[in-house]
Design a protein that fits this description.
Elements (H helix, E strand, L loop, with lengths): L9 H6 L6 H14 L4 H19 L3 E2 L3 H12 L5 H5 L3 H12 L4 H22 L4 H13 L1 H4 L4 E2 L1 H21 L8 H14 L9 H12 L2 H26 L13 H6 L9 H13 L7 H12 L2 H18 L1 H17 L12 H4 L4 H14 L12 H12 L10 H13 L8 H14 L7 H20 L5 H6 L1 H33 L1
Parallel strand pairs: 1-2
Helix pairs in contact: 3-7, 3-8, 3-22, 4-6, 7-8, 7-10, 8-26, 10-11, 10-12, 11-13, 12-13, 12-24, 15-16, 15-17, 16-17, 18-24, 20-21, 23-26, 24-26
């Protein structure tokens, strides 16, 4: 009787990628009708619509993080009364608010647009991953569609919905364009990729550096300086168009990409700020003591006080930046240790941030309208740095604007507590995307790609997802500011990495079964 070593067929399994046994081939053909047919995209979009509606019933439309700042920024297109607001916000989302709320007359138009983006997000991941593995693309799309942590965000007026979608679009375009070998010199998809990355910069601060890792990956994959130049051309053209738009609409020949006051966070939170760091640090400590603000959580009030003392936002930013550099140069090891702790927290933290509400945000924003409007107005006038250079702004001017913002989604929509409990449970389960020991998972994935020839086909999607995740981890860690809503943005890319490893391991198991069936058939 012929004998074989127990692991004799493991080598061929790691080298081949096609099934051979008739039994498993039949099963594969049946499943391909689900994940690789002409109906797959329609199915995923339909599931995306269901997802958007379920999440909408669970959490009705409401204002999200920093909504009032973005509404005030949008108001400047109507009446330029607070120019400093434009320096404190990123411009693309306020423009959408202006077009929907102030021009079309209803913020629900924007909510509807965001729900459409939500429904299409899973399709983007499938289309991007399909050239590499339609089965993995289908699994990732289902994971994205079911993700309540990110899906809920589309119901709120905040930059996260637009940013999440644009990031998904950039990921899909990158993977699609890398695969293409165009015959013509001009490739519209490459220009569109660059413009999409530029739109990320115009939406959230964390997107400003993505052009570097994604551009480098595109260059290394296509090995074409010309096509990489087209990506950069699309990137620059989009920024230039927006700059010219600002010149016409606001008489500002610049691209507003927000301020750098967030750099103040690590300066104070690190506990490493002292006068010995350098002259800027000593000056910052002196001005902060004059403000009499010792609570590190009162960054908005502290920044306003510094603007009033230095004379402008630009001067306050320069002081923050110099103090930050002095801190890093004086305490590189201590600060590096803090950054590594924050980076690890980002990788293991769950992105769930809506849970166990006594009063839903949609109900809260419509309750006690007069009192809450007055409190919000007073907060802006007394403490918020966005009005620091507007000493003449009065409550009479600001109150109707704030009241209009608060009332934009009142009365609140109907909601279902049963749907909310289900959505909260799903969101809680998605904590598994943030592995307790993420480095072990990512090292195992890297090892699988190096050792298994057919797994190397997934290298580009894995590198792209890893680059996006690393960008967000690095920026949040460097400013010592890791929050669940920042983590939730990266859920799809954590999912790509986790599912890629699960997919590879599962495929190995299937190939083992396939080899066993083939050998058993040969022995008969």
């Amino acid at each position: 009787m012929k004998t074989t070593r127990p692991l004799s067929f493991l080598g061929p399994i790691l080298r081949r990628s096609a099934l051979r046994s008739p039994q498993l081939i039949r099963w594969q053909q049946r499943f391909r009708r689900l994940y690789a047919s002409r109906y797959t995209i329609g199915l995923l979009f339909g599931l995306g619509v269901v997802r958007a509606l379920v999440f909408l019933i669970a959490y009705p439309p409401a204002h999200g993080a920093d909504s009032y700042d973005y509404f005030l920024s949008a108001y400047q297109y109507k009446d330029l009364i607070i120019p400093l607001v434009l320096d404190g916000t990123y411009p693309l989302y306020p423009l959408l608010i202006y077009l929907t709320h102030y021009v079309l007359g209803s913020i629900y138009v924007l909510i509807g647009f965001q729900l459409l983006l939500s429904a299409a997000q899973g399709v983007l991941f499938y289309v991007g991953l399909r050239p590499y593995s339609p089965a993995l693309g289908f699994l990732v799309a289902l994971m994205v569609i079911s993700d309540a942590q990110t899906g809920i965000l589309y119901n709120f007026t905040s930059t996260e919905p637009l940013y999440i979608f644009l990031l998904s679009l950039a990921f899909a375009l990158l993977l699609i364009q890398i695969q293409r070998r165009p015959q013509r010199r001009f490739v519209p998809g490459d220009v569109l990729l660059g413009a999409t990355i530029a739109a990320l910069i115009l939406t959230r601060p964390v997107g400003r550096y993505l052009i570097v890792p994604l551009g480098v990956l595109f260059l290394l994959s296509t090995r074409s300086w010309w096509r990489s130049g087209l990506v950069l051309a699309g990137f620059g053209l989009a920024l230039m168009v927006f700059m010219l738009f600002n010149r016409v609409a606001l008489n500002r020949l610049q691209v507003d990409t927000g301020s750098d006051v967030m750099i103040a966070g690590p300066v104070y939170r690190s506990g490493l700020l002292n006068a010995d760091n350098g002259p800027a640090s000593a000056r910052l400590i002196e001005l902060t003591e004059r403000c009499g603000i010792t609570d590190p959580r009162k960054g908005v009030e502290r920044t306003r006080c510094l603007i009033e003392q230095t004379g402008s936002l630009a001067e306050a930013q320069r002081l923050y930046t110099r103090a930050y550099r002095e801190l890093i140069m004086t305490h590189p090891i201590d600060y590096g240790r803090l950054v590594l702790i924050e980076a690890n927290d980002f990788l293991v933290m769950s992105g769930q941030h809506y849970l166990d509400y006594v009063i839903l945000p949609s109900d809260l924003q419509c309750a006690n309208m007069d009192t809450r409007t007055a409190n919000e107005v007073q907060r802006y006038l007394d403490r918020d740095w966005l009005l620091a250079e507007q000493p003449g702004m009065s409550a009479d001017q600001l109150t109707p604007i704030i009241r209009d913002i608060r009332a934009a989604m009142c009365p609140p929509w109907h909601n279902s507590s049963a749907a909310r409990e289900m959505v909260d449970e799903i969101a809680f389960r998605y904590r598994s995307l943030s592995r307790p020991h993420p480095y072990l998972w990512y090292e195992a994935l890297l090892l699988a790609i190096l050792l298994i020839s057919w797994a190397r086909r997934l290298a580009l999607p894995i590198l792209a997802a890893g680059a996006i995740l690393a960008n967000h981890v690095a920026i949040s860690a460097l400013i010592l500011n890791v929050q669940p809503r920042y983590v939730a943005v990266t859920n799809p890319y954590k999912g790509v990495l986790v599912l890629a490893l699960v997919f590879i391991v599962t495929k190995i198991m299937i190939f083992l079964a396939d080899e066993w069936l083939v050998r058993r058939s040969a022995d008969r």
